[in-house]
Write a structure and sequence with these properties.
mainly alpha; 5 helices
């Protein structure tokens, strides 16, 4: 379980994304286009809701424009100030 004080980690972000895709996290590169892996808007909405619980204040508009784990992570890091 994530420590709420810690916020969202890259490992959790990667695992949640992989879980949504039903694929091992190690198979997805940071710069892979997640749409090519089959991440659809419903799957993404589910993981984003989970992330918002752990990391309040995520810029959801930017997250919807992001296409890779690396881009997701940059947005999460920028949320922390």
């Amino acid at each position: 379980m994530n420590d709420m004080k810690q916020g969202l980690t890259l490992a959790q972000l990667r695992q949640d994304t992989a879980d949504a895709l039903n694929t091992p996290a190690v198979d997805i590169a940071d710069d892979d286009h997640l749409g090519d892996w089959g991440l659809d808007s419903i799957g993404f909405m589910r993981v984003l809701m989970k992330w918002e619980e752990v990391q309040p204040g995520i810029d959801t508009a930017r997250m919807y424009e992001a296409e890779t784990i690396a881009e997701f992570w940059d947005i999460v890091r920028s949320t922390r100030g």
